[in-house]
Inverse folding.
C-alpha cells in the first residue's frame, strides 16, 4: 500500500463497473457523459462525411436523394441534440460547477445520475429510429412535412428528443440550485468565475426553453400517431405555429451551445494573459443579457414565412440587440489580451482560434438579421456557413479548449502540448477551408439541403470537402493524444497552468468529496496580478 | 433555527446542514414548477392562438363539454389544496396523525377528480368526440372542432398525468410518514410535495375557464 503518497481520488476510489454505473459523484457522471457524447460526435461526423462526399460532384452519384435527406437530417439531430447541447454543460459543467464554487457535490446527485440515464435512453431511441429507416425531415421537423407527408421514422426520433430534453432540464435545475445555495463562504455572486455565470445563464435557458420544444415535438408525435391536425392546415391547424414554438426554443438553444463556450473562453483568456479579465461584471451580466434577449428574437428564422413586415422589422431590430452583449464579451476578451503577458499553451491556442471563428459567425448573423439580405440568402449555404461558424467554430472550439485546460484536472495526466497546439491550428485551417467557401456558395445562390447543384458551384464544393478532411484530422488528433496521455502522460500537478480558481486548489484528480475542508474565498476571481510570475506547464 | 442535534442526522453529505438542504430542495421545486409552467404554457399558447383563429368553431365545440362536472371537479381540487396545506401544517407542527389524516383526505379528493375526469372521457368517447380514436363528429367545421378536442385532450390529459404522479408522491409520503420519518425538524419532502400539488391545482384553475367557460353566454 502506498497510501500516503497517492490518497484515493475520484477515479481510484472504486474500480467496479457498478461503482461507475451507480455513481452519484458529479465528476464520475461528467466522465460518463464525456464517453457517451464523444461516441455521438463520431456518429454525427460520419454522417457529415457522407454529406460532404456526396457534394464533391454536382450529380447525386453516391447516395439516392432519400438517403441524402436522411444523412443531413440525422447529422443535424445528432450534432445539435445529442452533442452540442449537452457537451460543455454535461461534461465540463458537471465536473467543474461544484468544485469551482467550493461545494462537495451538486445539490441533487441522484437527479444528476438520472439525467445521464435519460440522455442514454433518449439517444438509444433516436439511434433506433436511425437504424430502422432514418428520418428525412431536417433537424427542424417542419410541419406538415414531418406530421403528414414523411414516411420515415419521425415518431421514434421525436420521442428520443423529447426524452433527452429532460436530461437537459434536470442538469439546468441542478446547476441553478447548486449555484444559488451551495457557494462556499465568501464566494459572493460577483466573485464567481465567469464559467459559473455562463452556466447559470445557460441553465435558465435550459429550464425555460426545453419544455417548449419537448411539448412541440410531442405534439408532432401525437399528430402522427393519432392523425390529429394541430399543425396541419388541412384540418384547420397552422404549420407556422409549429415554427414559432420550435424557434422559441431553438433560437435560445443556440445559446445553450454557445454561452458555456463563452464561459470557458473567459477562463482561458485571463489565465494565459496573466491578467484579471477586463470588465468582469460586464462579462458576467452579458451572459444573462444574452440568455434574456435570446428568448425574444426567434422570429428572425421566419422572415420568409409571410409574417407581417412589422413583425419582421421588430424581430430584426431585436436580433441586432443580441449582438451587443456578444460584442461586449468579445471586446472585453480583446482588452484582456492587450498588454497581457501571453503564453500560447494549447488551451490558449484553441481560445484564440475561437475568437476568430466566433467573430465571423457573429457578424454574419447580423447579415441574416437584416431583413433584406436575409431574404436573399435565406435557406442557402450562407446560413449553413453562419451557424457552423458559430456552433462548430465557436461551441466546439470552446469545448476543446476547455477539455485541454481541465484535462490534467480531470484525469491527473498531462498531454503533449506541441501536438495539441498543432491540432488546434489544423482545426482552424480545416474549418475555414470547409465553411468559408459556403458563404460564397450561399451568396451565389446554392440552396441548402439539395444534393444536386449546377456545375459552376463544383470548385467551391470540392474545396469545402477537402477542408472537411483536414478538419476531421484536427478532431481525431485530440482523441489519440488524450488517450495516449492516460497511459503515458506525465502526472499532472494540482495547478499546471498557475491558474486562479478553487478547482486548482484540489489535487489532480480531485478526491471524491472535492475538498478536505470547505474553502473560504477571500478575493475576487482572477487576481492574477497578485500571483508570482507564471511557471510554464511544459517546464513542470 | 432548527435543532442541530436532530437535524444533522437528516442531511445528505453534499450539504453543510439541514437548513441548506431545506433551502436547496425548496428552490429546486420552484425551478421545476417554472419549467412546468413552460410545458403547459406552450400548449395553452397553441390553444389561445387557435381560439382566436377559429372563434365560432371553438365556442361551439366547447359547449360539448359538461360544465357541471367541470365545476364539481374544480371544487374538489380547491378543497384538496386546502387539505394538502393542512397536511403540511400538521407536519410542521410534528403532529403525525393530523398529517397522515389530511394526506389521506387529499388523496381521496385527487382520486375523485380523476374518477370524474375518466367519466367525462368515457362520455366523450361514446359521443365520438375523441380525435384519433373515434372522431365522428359531423357538425359544421368538423376539422376545426377536432382541433379543439385535440387540445382539450392534450391539456387535460397532461394535467391528469400530473395528478397521477401527484397521487404517487402522496402515497409515498404517507407510507414514509406512517413510519415516523418526519418530525418538527425534518419535513421538507412534505412541504415541497405540497408545492407541487398546489401547482397542479392552479393549472386546473386556468384550464377550467379556458376550456369550459369561455364560450358561455
Ligand atoms: C451566438 C451564437 C449563435 C448561434 C449558435 C447561431 C446558430 C444558428 C443556427 C443553428 C441557425 C440555423 C437554423 C436553421 O437550421 O435554419 C441560425 C440561423 C440564423 N441566425 Fe444565428 N446563431 C448565433 C448568433 C446569431 C446572431 C448574433 C444573429 C443576429 C444578430 C443571428 C441571426 C440568425 C438568423 C437571422 C438566422 C436565420 C437565417 C435564415 O434561415 O434565413 N445568429 N443561427
Ligand atoms: Cu436564431
Amino acid at each position: 500500500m502506498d497510501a500516503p503518497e497517492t490518497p484515493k481520488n475520484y477515479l481510484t476510489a472504486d474500480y467496479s463497473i457498478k461503482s461507475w454505473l451507480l455513481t452519484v459523484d458529479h465528476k464520475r457522471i461528467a466522465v460518463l457523459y464525456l464517453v457517451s457524447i464523444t461516441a455521438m460526435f463520431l456518429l454525427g461526423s460520419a454522417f457529415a462525411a457522407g454529406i460532404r462526399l456526396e457534394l464533391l460532384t454536382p450529380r447525386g452519384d453516391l447516395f439516392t436523394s432519400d438517403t441524402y435527406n436522411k444523412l443531413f437530417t440525422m447529422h443535424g439531430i445528432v450534432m445539435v441534440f445529442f452533442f452540442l447541447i449537452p457537451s460543455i454543460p454535461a461534461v465540463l459543467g458537471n465536473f467543474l460547477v461544484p468544485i469551482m464554487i467550493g461545494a462537495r457535490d451538486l445539490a441533487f446527485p441522484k437527479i444528476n445520475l438520472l439525467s445521464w440515464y435519460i440522455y442514454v435512453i433518449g439517444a438509444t431511441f433516436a439511434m433506433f429510429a436511425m437504424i430502422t429507416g432514418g428520418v428525412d425531415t431536417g433537424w427542424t421537423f417542419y410541419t406538415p412535412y414531418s406530421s403528414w407527408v414523411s414516411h420515415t421514422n419521425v415518431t421514434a426520433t421525436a420521442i428520443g428528443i423529447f426524452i433527452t430534453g429532460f436530461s437537459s432540464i434536470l442538469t439546468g435545475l441542478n446547476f441553478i440550485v447548486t449555484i444559488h445555495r451551495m457557494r462556499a463562504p465568501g464566494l459572493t455572486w460577483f466573485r464567481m468565475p465567469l464559467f459559473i455565470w455562463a452556466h447559470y445563464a445557460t441553465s435558465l435557458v435550459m429550464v425555460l426553453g426545453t419544455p417548449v420544444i419537448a411539448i412541440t415535438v410531442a405534439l408532432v408525435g401525437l399528430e402522427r400517431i393519432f392523425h390529429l391536425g394541430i399543425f396541419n392546415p388541412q384540418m384547420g391547424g397552422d404549420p407556422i405555429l409549429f415554427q414559432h414554438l420550435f424557434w422559441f426554443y431553438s433560437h435560445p438553444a443556440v445559446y445553450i451551445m454557445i454561452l458555456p463556450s463563452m464561459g470557458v473562453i473567459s477562463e482561458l483568456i485571463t489565465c494565459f494573459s496573466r491578467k484579471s479579465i477586463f470588465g468582469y461584471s460586464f462579462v458576467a451580466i452579458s451572459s444573462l443579457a444574452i440568455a434574456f434577449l435570446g428568448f425574444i428574437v426567434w422570429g428572425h428564422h421566419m422572415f420568409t414565412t409571410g409574417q407581417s413586415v412589422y413583425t419582421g422589422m421588430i424581430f430584426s431590430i431585436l436580433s441586432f440587440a443580441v449582438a451587443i452583449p456578444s460584442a461586449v464579451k468579445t471586446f472585453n476578451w480583446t482588452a484582456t489580451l492587450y498588454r497581457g503577458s501571453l503564453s500560447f499553451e494549447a488551451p490558449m491556442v484553441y481560445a484564440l482560434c475561437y475568437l476568430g471563428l466566433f467573430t465571423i459567425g457573429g457578424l454574419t448573423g447580423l447579415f441574416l438579421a437584416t431583413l433584406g439580405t436575409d431574404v436573399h440568402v435565406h435557406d442557402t449555404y450562407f446560413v449553413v456557413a453562419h451557424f457552423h461558424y458559430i456552433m462548430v467554430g465557436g461551441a466546439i472550439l470552446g469545448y476543446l479548449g476547455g477539455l485541454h485546460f481541465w484535462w490534467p484536472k480531470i484525469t491527473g495526466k498531462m498531454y503533449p502540448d506541441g501536438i495539441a497546439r498543432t491540432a488546434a491550428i489544423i482545426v482552424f485551417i480545416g474549418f475555414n477551408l470547409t465553411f468559408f467557401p459556403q458563404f460564397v456558395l450561399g451568396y451565389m445562390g446554392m440552396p441548402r439541403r439539395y444534393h444536386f447543384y449546377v456545375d459552376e458551384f463544383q470548385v467551391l464544393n470540392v474545396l469545402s470537402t477537402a477542408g472537411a478532411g483536414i478538419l476531421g484530422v484536427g478532431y481525431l488528433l485530440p482523441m489519440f493524444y488524450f488517450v495516449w496521455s492516460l497511459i503515458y502522460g506525465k502526472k499532472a500537478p494540482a495547478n499546471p497552468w498557475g491558474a486562479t480558481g478553487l478547482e486548482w486548489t484540489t489535487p489532480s484528480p480531485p478526491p471524491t468529496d472535492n475538498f478536505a475542508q470547505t474553502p473560504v474565498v477571500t478575493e475576487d476571481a482572477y487576481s492574477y496580478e497578485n500571483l508570482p510570475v507564471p511557471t510554464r506547464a511544459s517546464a513542470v | 433555527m432548527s435543532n442541530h442535534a436532530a437535524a444533522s442526522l437528516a442531511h445528505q453529505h453534499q450539504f453543510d446542514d439541514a437548513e441548506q438542504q431545506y433551502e436547496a430542495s425548496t428552490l429546486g421545486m420552484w425551478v421545476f414548477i417554472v419549467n412546468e409552467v413552460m410545458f403547459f404554457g406552450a400548449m395553452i399558447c397553441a390553444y389561445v392562438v387557435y381560439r382566436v383563429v377559429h372563434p365560432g368553431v371553438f365556442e361551439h365545440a366547447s359547449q360539448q363539454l359538461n360544465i357541471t362536472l367541470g365545476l364539481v371537479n374544480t371544487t374538489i381540487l380547491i378543497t384538496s389544496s386546502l387539505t394538502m396545506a393542512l397536511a403540511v401544517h400538521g407536519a410542521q407542527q410534528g403532529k403525525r396523525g393530523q398529517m397522515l389524516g389530511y394526506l389521506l383526505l387529499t388523496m381521496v379528493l385527487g382520486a375523485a377528480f380523476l374518477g370524474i375526469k375518466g367519466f367525462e372521457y368515457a362520455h366523450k368517447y361514446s359521443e365520438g368526440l375523441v380525435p384519433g380514436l373515434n372522431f365522428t363528429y359531423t357538425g359544421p367545421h368538423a376539422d376545426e372542432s377536432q382541433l379543439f378536442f385535440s387540445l382539450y385532450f392534450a391539456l387535460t390529459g397532461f394535467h391528469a398525468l400530473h395528478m397521477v404522479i401527484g397521487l404517487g408522491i402522496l402515497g409515498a409520503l404517507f407510507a414514509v410518514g406512517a413510519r415516523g420519518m418526519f418530525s418538527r425538524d425534518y419535513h421538507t419532502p412534505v412541504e415541497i410535495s405540497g408545492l407541487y400539488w398546489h401547482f397542479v391545482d392552479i393549472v386546473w384553475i386556468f384550464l377550467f375557464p379556458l376550456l369550459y367557460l369561455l364560450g358561455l353566454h
In short: Chain A has a mean pLDDT of 93. The longest helix of chain A spans residues 65-100.
